[in-house]
Design goal:
Layout lengths: L3 H16 L10 E4 L11 E4 H5 L4 H7 L13 H5 L19 H4 L9 E3 L11
Bound molecules: heme C (3 copies).
Keywords: Signal
Pfam families: Cytochrome_C7
Protein name: Cytochrome c7-like domain-containing protein
Length: about 130
């Protein structure tokens, strides 16, 4: 009986430590790509990194497709995408919906600058 309370407190403490190590954040949140879009009369592109990251391994994009792992570091043009490079490797109507759906990628509010929005830290398996 005398051990009941300390054991319970230990368990509570352990669960608190396990359950609340960090605030919840989407890893690598959203990336804005706006080197050319707005200047060419289109809205900036919002790239949801987390949405893609949970579906594909890092190396698919950061090795095989040649996306540099730094927001704003890539020169991506619409012509290359339509030819099947970068986003167009998948957004081709086969792996994912095609480039006809302009307004699914060009969703940013005018004036947004290229770069990451939200967390670019990871606490999960992507940490390296
Ligand atoms: C799969 C996502 C995606 C779709 C769908 C898409 N775009 Fe883009 N587009 C991009 C990205 C990424 C860029 C490069 C953004 C930047 O850095 O400015 C871009 C850039 C552009 C540019 C800038 C100039 C240039 O030549 O690169 C224009 C214009 C453009 N897109 C038009 C369109 C039109 C019109 C459609 C629909 C027919 C479309 N886009 C559909 C992702 C997309
Ligand atoms: C489907 C494609 C895709 C996958 C999968 C992917 N990324 Fe990315 N990642 C991108 C793109 C696109 C950018 C933005 C590049 C730009 O802005 O020019 C980016 C940007 C980044 C950045 C830059 C953030 C910053 O602050 O500059 C990091 C770090 C990163 N990715 C890490 C990862 C890791 C780690 C994984 C796997 C766990 C991963 N990515 C999976 C496409 C991908
Ligand atoms: C490795 C493959 C791959 C690459 C590369 C890729 N995507 Fe995607 N993307 C997908 C798939 C798969 C989906 C989910 C399609 C579906 O739901 O039908 C998706 C969905 C999306 C969505 C919708 C997200 C939502 O909430 O429904 C956006 C926006 C998007 N992609 C933009 C981009 C842009 C911009 C790029 C280039 C910077 C890009 N994608 C590169 C595979 C890819």
């Amino acid at each position: 009986m005398t051990y009941r309370i300390p054991v319970f407190l230990c368990a509570l403490l352990a669960s608190v430590t396990v359950l609340s190590p960090l605030p919840a954040q989407a890893e690598y949140a959203d990336v804005v790509l706006n080197k050319y879009a707005e200047a060419a009369g289109m809205r900036p592109v919002i790239y949801p990194h987390w949405f893609h990251r949970i579906r594909f391994r890092c190396k698919v994009c950061h090795n095989e497709l040649g996306f540099e792992m730094r927001a704003g570091a890539n020169d991506v043009t619409m012509a290359e995408i339509i030819e099947g490079q970068f986003c167009g490797m998948c957004h081709n109507g086969q792996i994912a919906w095609s480039t006809e759906h302009c307004d699914r990628c060009h969703t940013g509010l005018p004036g947004l600058k290229s770069g990451i929005r939200g967390s670019n830290e990871t606490s999960g398996p992507g940490r390296w």
